[in-house]
Amino acid sequence: MEEELIKLQTNVSSLIIACDDSDELENIRENFLGKNGDLTEAIKRIGKLPADERPEIGKLANEIKTTVEEMLQDKKKNLSGNATNTIKVDAIKKLDITLPGAKPPLGHLHLITQALEEITSIFEHIGFARVRHPEVEWDWYAFTSLNFPENHPARDDWETFFIKEGIHPKKGQMILTPHTSSGQVREMEKGVLPIKMLNIAKCYRRQSDVSHSPMFHQFEGLVVGENISITHLKGVLDYFVKSYFGPNRISRIRPYHFQFTEPSFEIDVSCGICNGKGCKLCKAGWLELGGAGMVHPNVLKAGNIDTKKYSGFAFGWGVERVLMMKEGLSLEDLRILYSNDMRFLEQF
Ligand code: PHE
Question: Which of 36, 51, 139, 319 could make a disulfide contact with 172, Cβ separation 3.0–4.6 Å?
Answer without folding.
Answer: 139
